[in-house]
Q: What sequence folds into this?
């Protein structure tokens, strides 16, 4: 069938276009230009994933055309589409991507690295060719190179160590190799020299660190103390290492987003203890014992949290626990005064008609709780809910006319009672430095693998 007719059929929806996609793939290189043009057209009435699928399955004939299109992409959206297709091409031999590692356009180099990252066993045979990308002029390419070596793992360790030991190697690539080693090496494989280099870099960064807001996904405690030793003892933490806020937050986020069954203690091996922030010490993570009690379903999270808050409240005079998710709208807080929990709210529990523990806290005053809907049932009658602009305009109008309060989240309560970690900035009073400390699981199994920024 004529390629123009086949391309016209691509507007029928993903599942309905399978015959047309298969026919275009069978024509191979002859249709790459037309399908690529469709992929790059943001006004086309075709789902971009349809044209991307065709190019991915055509494979190597689409490689160079996609690379050139990435170099000339006119928008971030087109760049994203091309990168998605280019990194997932059905190419039999990874060697086909090698010329793209030297492409003048950074997006092309990064996408080529992604292909190696997703095929780590094969990529192990190209380690020497990948090493220069650790010193790439573009920071995103350097980061992608680090992730690629992390994926390759122990097979890359000898080459990375060799780079670290070459006096003539530039500082940027040596620094990149150190980051890659931290992610690729198994616990115990990182040598004393490299550990010393990492600690030296941390000391340099700590000397002039300026706080900035943290990405919040998970839970943390807030304690009204500057006594880090007491905090370490309260959470049964040891082997504490000084770290920047950036490093500590990255370790916490790594733990929260680790779902690999190959390293089952990644999420409970270490905890980030902040410097004193406006007189409060924040603890991101939990002790291994509490984590396992929750994970093994021996007890519900709310019971573990309340017990821990009460225990910490007795020790430090007060204690707070907060939770936020970057993916599903979960937010929660637990507040203890002395050894008594006076308030525990969890949005998911509230949505299931479970009453929060304790009466509303004064910090919630003037807010709607996350499960509450202050809008009347007919507030959006006649509004096209798929039109974001129209919905938002109506939302703002009704909210203002009826005086509907803002909704509060854990960060709002934290800002009123202690410290909002997402709002840290140059004006935040800081005393001391952060610590990355091992839990009982961490002391037994070691730090999780994975590079952390200094």
A:
């Amino acid at each position: 069938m004529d390629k123009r007719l086949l391309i016209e059929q691509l507007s029928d929806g993903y599942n309905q276009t399978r015959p047309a996609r298969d026919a275009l793939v069978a024509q191979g290189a002859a249709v790459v230009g037309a399908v690529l043009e469709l992929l790059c057209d943001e006004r086309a009435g075709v789902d971009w994933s349809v044209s991307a699928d065709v190019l991915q399955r055509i494979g190597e004939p689409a490689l160079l055309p996609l690379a050139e299109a990435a170099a000339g992409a006119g928008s971030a959206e087109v760049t994203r589409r091309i990168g998605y297709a280019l990194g997932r091409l059905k190419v039999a031999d990874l060697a086909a991507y090698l010329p793209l590692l030297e492409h003048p356009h950074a997006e092309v180099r990064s996408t080529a690295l992604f292909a190696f990252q997703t095929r780590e066993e094969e990529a192990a045979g190209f380690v020497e060719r990948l090493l220069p990308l650790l010193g790439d002029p573009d920071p995103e390419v350097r980061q992608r190179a680090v992730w690629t070596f992390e994926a390759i793992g122990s097979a890359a360790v000898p080459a990375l160590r060799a780079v670290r030991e070459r006096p003539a190697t530039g500082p940027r690539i040596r620094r990149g190799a150190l980051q890659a080693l931290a992610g690729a090496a198994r616990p115990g494989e990182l040598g004393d020299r490299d550990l010393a280099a990492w600690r030296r870099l941390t000391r340099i960064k700590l000397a002039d660190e300026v706080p900035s807001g943290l990405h919040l996904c998970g839970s943390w405690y807030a304690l009204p103390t500057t006594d880090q030793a007491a905090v370490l003892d309260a959470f049964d933490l040891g082997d504490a290492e000084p770290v920047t806020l950036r490093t500590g937050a990255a370790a916490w986020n790594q733990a929260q987003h680790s779902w690999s069954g190959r390293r089952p203690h990644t999420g409970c091996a270490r905890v980030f203890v902040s410097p004193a922030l406006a007189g409060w010490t924040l603890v991101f993570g939990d002790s291994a014992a509490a984590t396992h009690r929750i994970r093994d379903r021996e007890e519900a999270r709310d019971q573990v949290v309340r017990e821990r808050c009460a225990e910490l409240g007795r020790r430090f005079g007060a204690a707070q626990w907060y939770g936020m998710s970057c993916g599903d709208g979960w937010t929660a807080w637990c507040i203890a005064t002395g050894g008594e929990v006076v308030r525990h709210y969890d949005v998911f529990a509230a949505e299931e008609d479970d009453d929060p523990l304790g009466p509303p806290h004064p910090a919630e005053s003037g807010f709607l709780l996350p499960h509450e809907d202050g809008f009347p049932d007919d507030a959006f009658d006649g509004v096209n809910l798929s039109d974001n602009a129209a919905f938002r305009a109506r939302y703002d109008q009704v909210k203002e006319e009826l005086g509907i309060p803002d909704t509060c989240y854990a960060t709002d309560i934290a800002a009123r009672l202690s410290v909002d970690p997402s709002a840290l900035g140059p004006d935040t009073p800081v005393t001391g430095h952060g610590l990355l400390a091992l839990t009982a699981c961490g002391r037994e199994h070691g730090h999780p693998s994975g590079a952390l920024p200094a």
Summary: The beta strands are 218-223, 238-243, 270-273, 276-277, 281-284, 318-324, 331-337, 340-346, 430-431, 434-438. The chain has a mean pLDDT of 85. The chain has 21 helices and ten strands.
